[in-house]
Amino acid sequence: DIPIDINAGLEPYDLLFDNAVEAYYKGDWISVILNMERALRNKGTVRRVKAHCRLTCANQTDFGEPISGVGVPIPGGGSVEDLGFFQKVLKRADCVNSCESEKLGPPSFHKISEEVELEFRKRSPYNYLQVAYFKINKLNKAVAAANTFYLANPEHMEMRQNLEYYRMMAGVQETDFKDLEARLHMEEFLDGKKLYSADSFAPAIDHFEEAVTEYLIADQECRALCEGPYDYDGYNYLEYTADLFQSMTDHYMQVLNCKQNCVVELATLPSADKPVEDFLPAHFNYLQFSYYNTENYEKAIECAKTYLLFHPEDEMMNQNLAFYVATLGEDKAAAIPAKEVVQQHIKQSLLEKELLYFAFEAFGITFVDPDKWTPADIMPQRLREKQKAERETAARITEEIGNLMKEIETLVEEKNKESTDITKIVREGGNVLFDDIVVTMTAKALNGSQRVVLDNVISEDECRELHRLSNTAALLGDGYRGKRSPHSPSEMFQGVTVLKALKLGQEGKVPLKSARLFFELSERVRKVLESYFRLETTLYFSYTHLVCRSAIEEKQEGREDLSHPVHVDNCFLVSELNECIKEPPAYTHRDYSAILYLNDDFEGGDFIFAELDAKTVTAEVRPQCGRVVGFGSGKENPHGVRAVTKGQRCAVALWFTLDPRHNEKERIQAEDLLKMLSSPLDADFQKSSKDPESAQIAQTSETGEQATLQADKQADEQADKKVKQAAKPKVKEAATKKTDKQKDKPPVKKAAVKKSTIDSGTGSTATDTKQPKAKSPESHMADSQDSKAETSSAADSQKDREEL
Ligand SMILES: O=C(O)CCC(=O)C(=O)O
Ligand SMILES: [Fe+2]
């Protein structure tokens, strides 16, 4: 049941969040914890209450019945029926409203700004909590908070370091690494899969069944929460002049779109950007095979039939079902229906899709179906034809581009040969390679070793272009407007990698020229460093990041922290001990670091070199356009960044390694992508990628990037397959051989069908009965993989490169 706040007037969680953040700056850790924990709890309560109220009210004010007391319908009296309908709407609104206010206080109380919502979505509260728990020695709670935050922010290096640090600490157990925001249905599903892979079918069943139950509950809640306010989504609501029915339609379609999207929300892991494919149906695939393995044919039939509700044509599952039916007997089998709740779920979803497609056709309200199982005829004929035509055009253009690319690649190769020759000649000229570059401060001037400040490394125009690139990329973001800087909540932090920039360039979202410039300038810095430090072996990229730090105006008062605390790039600095621990999780492979500055129109933000105590500053560098501070990444160079108190400070941070094994993978992908894009076609390609046709190209063409992504996916799948094959020992050897062969071809299992018929006749040949392995989810997956076989050469070549 819903926990009811008897004092009606639940404290708004944005207020609590703000209180916690404020306390954080005062170092009032207890208050951080009290407020942040309460914020999280209250957010949960608001969520539960809203879902609860909408669901119970839906039951109480069902739109189905006719209006009471009106009596015989008047012919042509549509308006009376309208009133009946609106009476219901009114009642529902009243019901939801009083239900919510009774439990939460006035509705205006819990209007949360998008900014705060974003903080919660990014799990930021756990970032604050982590520090606070740590400070008051609640180690286990700190670990859980850190882990919860990290799961949703896997790119967050500081938190990764913290976690590894925790891992080494005494008193911390593996079980402390909890996900405090875990969704039950997902946990159950993952547990089920683990057991399934280990052949523990009986316990796997419990988890998968629980996963289905929890999924349906979570789905209901997710759907109810969709019934929120209309989202004007960027356009000015003052200009929104839709009439009654149009505005009802707009809002309702938004709600339906949201409801359909619950499939995606429920199937997505916190750090993943894509959902688990065909998530709900997959449960029944796993279940049927698990039930078969525990010889529960009734349930195997139920689950196979349920799976077939989604994919009625699925050959493998139909064969499995046939086998189970033959084993159990036709009559008994016929009496077993598919799961009723799932039937309902599908029926409702299909109805929604029909409405959404109608609105798509009639009003252009876009709907992208998130499900893989929707029957083709749910989409209106005309829409289907239009999409088919678009796909065909895209395929044709892809082919043409492919041909051109081949020609261009040859040209690029020739050009590359030329440019390496030039580099060789220039390198002999001097140790900063380029005429304009000057050595402004040597290690001596900087009071240390392996340090240098260079100027004029890039031009004013180039600075401006990269600065603009950073801001455009940040605006596009991941749909997020910015992230709080991990170490200074008084600043906003935004970053883009070379590959990300090139991808955005390819999509036409940032100028491709700028993305390429980013790539080239970072290469220039690499060469200069390699030469200046007289390195005898190649300096490889390890990570490249264009970063801006922006002061948050209202958060500067009494500020004492740094923008980036003093640290060492390749070891974990323990300043209390004047020591640096060079062990993973620290990025121990980093050998050289460089920061290329892009601007100076901000206050604060000076770069500092310090001693191992993290306090004594040994040198300072004022950022300015074209300036590079380069230094060895080791303990001889602790460094940090002073608080940026006004404006925005942008720089390219580069880390290098001498170890070829750590040559940045992203860089290689970026090179591939660039090779693909670097052609006289650029302008056209980029322009056209803005229109819908070529947006499709990007998805279907075998671009370098695409191939690599495919390669990654392939590798994942391979791993997945390995796990699943490990689950095979249940199968007799003879059968295994057969399936291995069948992997290449669609598995039409005539033999199996025959055998299963024999089995059901004799009801005894147990060895033969185990035949359905070919019908298991594993071979199911293996098949779908064959269709992707064309991409495996790309996967191989990627692998080769990695092994180099
Ligand atoms: O931006 C800077 O000046 C230095 C940044 C830095 O040291 C780092 O990101 O490791
Ligand atoms: Fe650094």
UniProtKB/TrEMBL annotation:
PROSITE patterns: FE2OG_OXY. Residues 684-693, 713-723, 730-747, 775-789 have a biased composition (Basic and acidic residues). Residues 544-658 form the Fe2OG dioxygenase domain. Residues 684-804 are annotated as: Disordered. One of its GO terms (molecular function) is procollagen-proline 3-dioxygenase activity. Its cofactor is L-ascorbate; Fe cation. Keywords: Dioxygenase, Endoplasmic reticulum, Glycoprotein, Iron, Metal-binding, Oxidoreductase, Repeat, Signal, TPR repeat, Vitamin C. One of its GO terms (cellular component) is endoplasmic reticulum. Residues 696-709, 758-769 have a biased composition (Polar residues). InterPro entries: Leprecan_dom, Oxoglu/Fe-dep_dioxygenase_dom, P3H, Pro_4_hyd_alph, Pro_4_hyd_alph_FE2OG_OXY, TPR-like_helical_dom_sf. It comes from the Eukaryota. Its EC number is 1.14.11.7. It is an enzyme of class 1 (oxidoreductase). GO terms for biological process: collagen metabolic process. PANTHER family: LEPRECAN 1 (PTHR14049), PROLYL 3-HYDROXYLASE 1 (PTHR14049:SF5). Belongs to the leprecan family. This is procollagen-proline 3-dioxygenase. It comes from Aldrovandia affinis.
